[in-house]
Amino acid sequence: MAIKERRARERAEREQLIVRAARELAETEGWDAVTTRRLAERIEYSQPVLYSHFAGKDAIVAAVAVQGCAELAVQLRAVAAEFDEPRAAFGAVARAYLAFAVANPALYDAIFTMANPLPFGTPEAPAALHEAFAAIAEPATASATAAGLDPAGYTELAWSALHGMATLTRGGRLRPDLDHSRMAAFTAVF
Amino acid sequence: MAIKERRARERAEREQLIVRAARELAETEGWDAVTTRRLAERIEYSQPVLYSHFAGKDAIVAAVAVQGCAELAVQLRAVAAEFDEPRAAFGAVARAYLAFAVANPALYDAIFTMANPLPFGTPEAPAALHEAFAAIAEPATASATAAGLDPAGYTELAWSALHGMATLTRGGRLRPDLDHSRMAAFTAVF
DNA sequence: TCAGTTGTCTAGCGGTGCTAGGGTTTCGGG
DNA sequence: CCCGAAACCCTAGCACCGCTAGACAACTGA
């Protein structure tokens, strides 16, 4: 009996090993470098074992995404908890969100831009995702009601602005010298 | 002498044929389906002729992107011209921007999300790109000065919000039932 | 007519995600 | 202790990808 448990434990460890290897490879060389062959070589197994853990490459990046999601949620929550005033919290959370995207570009892509099959809307999305969204939604809701606007749409708009800044910044499509001005406009407007 | 001209004309026509085929294929089946082999089959030539026109596949999607850019600029300009009041113009341009992204998802991706090597900042970007950006920047600048904010950062923020909404909507990451509320928040806030 | 240029195609290279099949190891009961 | 059964993993390969070398055909211009 205990043997089965040990096997299951080893399997789980190897699965984490795969996810970790994929994330590291993506973060250091970009997602293009994350091929099943390189991944297999890195974990010192052959490619087919990857498919005994995940349905395909997409499932691997999805696993990386949910892991990243949890980290993002933790960071945003921690920042939000430092502030009493919702407006100040909103600004700080926004800055933390963008900082996360800059610090972990590959992780951010896995979560939000790659075509992963993660359910996102209100149905059964990973709990970490709800958590991260809530960290933005709470101060945003406070700001929306103060402005007499529907909180739901307002929150999605604010998130869209953050996401837009994150992605456009990475593509070199926004002027770096305007970072400060842009952020000032965000805190002034939202 | 005239023979060279005819040849050059035919080459230009074939180049347009390639760009058109790439765009159509992308729009109907997504960019994943745009492979050099399928593209070659569609224009009824072999793959190598593609490389006598473009440096590689990236250059082809870049060509599609600048073409789409011009169209976007025309549409935004046309919408902006209908309004005298900058505020009303801003809202209409924003709606037109999002409508463009919904109507031509592959085109939008080619311009803004794919890793094309288009220069974007202030240096030598395609003229059409400046044109499109200006169509957003002008009403945004009016709105920014009215709010006493730096127009440059304000404009980039507004564009980020639009871009974020466009991309998150396509990924099914925003609730469709909030489209109206989200847009109301946009016009109220910017 | 005929060399030289131009244009195009076939075939192939190294890479991708993914899978079929077989061989080795380990397990569990007689 | 031993052996059939199950679990596990690897080698080899498929069909596809972007891209290119080299051969071949067609056209040009003297």
Distance between the termini of chain A: 58 Å
Q: Estimate the global geometry of chain A from the Cα principal axes.
A: elongated
What would you say the CATH architecture of the largest domain in chain A is?
Answer: Orthogonal Bundle
Radius of gyration of chain A equals 19 Å
Order of helices and strands of chain A: HHHHHHHHH
Mean pLDDT of chain A: 92
Please, what is the CATH homologous superfamily of the largest domain in chain A?
A: Tetracycline Repressor, domain 2
Indicate the multimeric state.
homodimer
Total separate domains of chain A: 2
Protein structure class of chain A: mainly alpha
Helix count of chain A equals 9
Helix content of chain A: over 70%
Q: Main interface pair?
A: A-B, 40 and 40 residues
Present the secondary structure layout.
The structure is a homodimer of 190-residue chains.
Chain A: H1 2-29, H2 36-43, H3 47-53, H4 57-81, H5 86-103, H6 105-113, H7 127-147, H8 151-170, H9 179-189
Helix pairs in contact in A: 1-2, 1-4, 2-3, 4-5, 4-6, 4-7, 5-6, 5-7, 5-8, 7-8
Chain A binds a DNA duplex (30 and 30 nucleotides) through residues 3, 7, 35-37, 45-52, 56-57.
